[in-house]
Write a structure and sequence with these properties.
Layout lengths: L1 H11 L4 H8 L3 H8 L7 H11 L7 H4 L5 H27 L5 H21 L5 H8 L1 H13 L4 H6 L3 H14 E4 L4 E4 L1
Antiparallel strand pairs: 1-2
Helix pairs in contact: 2-3, 2-4, 6-7, 6-9, 7-11, 8-11, 9-11
Organism: Sediminicola luteus
Pfam family, one: HTH_3
Keywords: DNA-binding, Membrane, Transmembrane, Transmembrane helix
Length: 189
């Protein structure tokens, strides 16, 4: 894929392989290998070629991404499941436990803001919806479960204990908080 792009841009600029090799200070054989996609070029090679062609090296970044293996995807999925179960357990225990008092409910309220805030600050490149679906799916599941299971007791179980406000606050924080890593500032979407 990289080779195809290099070839297209080289032809569009009206350069031969020899001219590009001379301009990029690489061998003609290296240019041929890159264009034929015989191997993945090193960063130095891509930098030299992009400089010679007058293009940004970031143009090649998307084509360099390797597809994730099944094992890596399963590992990430299992990590997200464990994290969501942990978040559900902490918020649920602090609000629904029979011994839950005002202090534990305040703790649940603070955790339902601070944990999603921490997640949002560590995932600045993730879109809001993606962040909510990945890290807030436990909250969504918990909300649905409370509404379906305790529909008649929604006020006493959901709102009076503080569970539903905590879950909504957590989801809102995941969706609305945006961290700008360049400036080190937070903003709302």
């Amino acid at each position: 894929m990289i080779g195809k792009k290099v070839r297209e841009i080289r032809i569009r600029k009206g350069l031969t392989q020899a001219e590009l090799a001379k301009k990029s200070k690489l061998t003609q054989r290296t240019i041929q290998r890159v264009e034929l996609d015989k191997n993945t070029p090193r960063d130095y090679t891509l930098k030299q070629i992009s400089t010679a062609l007058g293009i940004d090296i970031a143009m090649f970044d998307k084509t360099l991404e390797k597809p994730k293996s099944l094992w890596a995807s399963l590992l990430k999925l299992s990590w997200l499941v464990v994290l969501n179960i942990f978040l559900m357990t902490v918020i649920g225990y602090a609000t629904l436990d029979s011994n839950a008092n005002t202090n534990s409910r305040i703790t649940a309220f603070l955790l339902s803001f601070s944990l999603p805030f921490l997640i949002a600050s560590q995932t600045p490149k993730t879109t809001s919806w993606s962040r909510v679906l990945q890290y807030g799916s436990g909250f969504i599941f918990y909300l649905i479960l409370i509404v379906v299971q305790h529909y008649n007791l929604l006020w006493s179980v959901g709102f009076k204990t503080g569970l539903i406000p905590c879950l909504i606050l957590g989801l809102s924080t995941l969706y609305f908080v945006k961290y700008n890593g360049n400036r080190g500032t937070y903003s709302l979407n």
